[in-house]
Amino acid sequence: QVQLVDSGGGLVQAGGSLRLSCAASGRTFSGYAMGWFRQAPGKEREFVAGMSRSGTNTAYADSVKGRFTISRDDRKNTRYLQLNNLKPEDTAVYFCAAVGGSYYYVPRESDEYDYWGQGTQVTVSS
Prior knowledge:
The protein is an all-beta fold. The protein has no helices and eleven strands. The mean pLDDT is 95.
């Protein structure tokens, strides 16, 4: 079992930046692939970014490529999502998620993940 706590959301103007954090407890995060998802009001939860267990493979949604970056700090047992050049359409609740499994695979579907954070709100004003 691993418990995830995500944080770092807030209100920012278009073009601004935020860094989201996902802290893990209970197990070492390095044993899990992780992903970031978001859900806007009235919309389905969507994949934003992910990282394999190995940390060598990453994946991004087309809508965030070149603007968002996923990273890890194993000493702090934490994963991050750096959000740059934010747009109003990035407004959503962001969730981190984790799953064990294949070392180099990056899961992209929400039902592939076993553990979820509680979510952190990101609001981008125009």
